[in-house]
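Tokens as discussed.
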């Protein structure tokens, strides 16, 4: 596999993300596989932000440490990335940003007077468009594609702005093309025409599309990094799909409104991050007592408290698993790929509706902000499954049944009165303090009988690789792409990957499933300090991973492909 890692770095407010947004579109439409990841500080101006755009001849979806091409907007940006440079790195830098006696670790430095050229174009802000042009020129990409994207991007600002941006792009393209033609940059990738029809999408958009495919028609959320992308995506598409958008006054209100919307017959989503979900837990218990469906998207970030609000982590598994006072069931999904995010979110709405429990989609900053291209999603077999009933005069919302599922009615749909409250209740929904029969039976139906039902539909993890492997790597959620790529590029046919996309409940036969594959050694990779999923496996499946076999990351950075390779080489000796 051949790939080139491009890093563009600068301060917040300098347009790093704008460059990424335009470049990934141009390069994908020119036939290159794309993976774009970003790191940014929790500030509006200043600091050090960067975006990595990987361009490859194969599909890629993971962060890498190495940098093949670095374009720093200033000296601070260079210093931020210097530890990742090597003799294989090319640095394109404006002379005005160079540091005296700059240690480039053997990298090739190419000076381009971008700021001066931008001023000649009429405004220093055109540096960003010039950089887009330079990178596009380096890859001899399609200029017409770029021109169309720039017109779309700046069309609302008027013809003059569009023309100046295209002129700036053309100037940058000529510079990049000249660098490649001179041999200073070797373009080793061959475009693939099939990539042009792929979808370029990030994790937040995949969750949003899955919600739409699941029939979501209401979302309530209070903006909170890194979950806000889901709210933004659904808001941008709300008119086309008739979705009610509620930017709630706080997270407590957001989940209360979500539960109320399901009560009224909507298919509702709440989206937040760990700190926001901490405020939602009372409403989660309300959903448990009401036996209400709910779908919640939690985009994790490092805590406690505000923590690192723009970085990544897998630290909220315990919070989601045990949140809420009292005992009631829930289902937790953790997608590892864009495709899984779409299909699992879609499925979450049907499962929540059928089993009348909260269903979680657990992602993180690395996942929701990461762009990559995928083939067209298969929606042939997708169905919106609704399980509410038309009520009769004698309707009992909390009727005792053999399987523990009571018929869920909707106010106004039928003749019956649909009662719901936060107190313990009888079959009709009336408050009760009957501790001899009603209370124990209601607990059984909410807790034990629900667990019996949802365990039956629990999905086994995906097993990648051989049976009887020398090493099996257990992972969940967003760590999958880096692990999968490391195994593939190093041709490790003695290593298997066990990826859990369903975290809870675990299938009853999960231990037998893994034992049958007969791995000689198992390790676990996750992004928290205590091995939360390792603990869950021990408690709920009697699968023990020794402490020395836990590879935990809690810095706020994602695992890179190179780091996973080092882990595999060490553990598979």
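Sequence:
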């Amino acid at each position: 596999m051949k790939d080139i890692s491009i890093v563009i770095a600068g301060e917040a407010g300098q347009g790093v993300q704008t460059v990424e947004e335009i470049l990934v579109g141009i390069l994908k439409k020119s036939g290159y596989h794309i993976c774009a990841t970003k790191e940014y500080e929790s500030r509006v101006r200043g600091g050090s932000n960067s975006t990595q755009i990987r361009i490859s001849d194969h599909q890629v979806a993971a962060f890498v440490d190495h940098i093949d091409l670095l374009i720093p907007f200033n000296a601070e940006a260079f210093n931020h990335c210097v530890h990742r440079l090597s003799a294989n790195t090319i640095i394109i830098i404006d002379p005005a940003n160079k540091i005296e006696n700059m240690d480039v670790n053997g990298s090739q430095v190419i000076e381009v007077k971008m700021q001066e050229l931008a001023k000649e174009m009429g405004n220093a802000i055109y540096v960003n468009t010039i950089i887009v042009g330079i990178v596009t020129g380096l890859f001899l990409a399609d200029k017409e594609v770029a021109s169309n994207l720039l017109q779309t991007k700046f069309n609302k600002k008027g013809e003059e702005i569009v023309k100046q941006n295209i002129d700036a792009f053309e100037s940058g393209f000529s510079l990049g093309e000249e660098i490649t033609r001179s041999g200073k940059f070797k373009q080793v990738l061959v475009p693939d025409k099939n990539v042009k029809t792929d979808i370029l999408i990030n994790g937040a958009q995949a969750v949003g599309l899955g919600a739409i495919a699941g029939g979501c028609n209401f979302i309530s959320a209070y903006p909170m990094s890194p979950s806000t992308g889901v709210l933004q995506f659904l808001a941008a598409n709300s008119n086309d799909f008739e979705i009610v958008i509620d930017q709630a006054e706080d997270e407590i209100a957001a989940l209360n409104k979500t539960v109320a919307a399901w009560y009224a017959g909507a298919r509702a989503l709440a989206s937040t991050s760990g700190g926001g979900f901490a405020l939602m837990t009372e409403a989660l218990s309300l959903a448990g007592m009401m036996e209400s469906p709910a779908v919640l998207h939690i985009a994790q970030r490092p805590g406690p408290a505000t923590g690192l609000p723009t970085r990544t982590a897998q630290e909220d598994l315990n919070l989601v698993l045990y949140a809420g006072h009292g005992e009631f069931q829930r289902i937790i999904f953790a997608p590892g790929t864009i495709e899984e995010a779409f299909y699992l979110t879609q499925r979450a709405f049907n499962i929540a509706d059928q089993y009348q429990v909260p269903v979680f989609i657990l992602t993180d900053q690395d996942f929701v902000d990461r762009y990559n291209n995928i083939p067209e999603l298969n929606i042939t077999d997708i169905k919106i499954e609704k399980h509410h009933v038309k009520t009769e005069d004698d309707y009992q919302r909390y009727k005792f049944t053999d399987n523990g599922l009571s018929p869920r009615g909707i106010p106004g749909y039928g003749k019956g009165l649909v009662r719901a409250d936060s107190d313990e209740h009888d079959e009709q929904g009336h408050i009760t303090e009957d501790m001899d029969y009603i209370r124990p039976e209601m607990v059984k139906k909410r807790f034990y009988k629900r667990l019996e039902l949802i365990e039956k539909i629990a999905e086994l993890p995906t097993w990648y690789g051989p049976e009887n492997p020398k090493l099996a790597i257990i992972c969940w959620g967003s760590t999958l792409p880096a692990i999968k790529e490391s195994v593939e590029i190093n041709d490790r046919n003695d290593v298997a990957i066990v990826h859990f996309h369903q975290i809870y409940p675990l299938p009853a036969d999960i231990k037998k499933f893994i034992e049958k594959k007969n791995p000689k050694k198992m390790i676990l990779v996750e992004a928290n300090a205590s091995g939360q999923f390792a603990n869950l496996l021990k408690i709920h499946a009697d699968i023990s991973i020794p402490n020395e076999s836990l590879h935990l990351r809690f810095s706020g950075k994602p695992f890179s492909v190179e780091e996973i390779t080092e882990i595999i080489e060490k553990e598979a000796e």
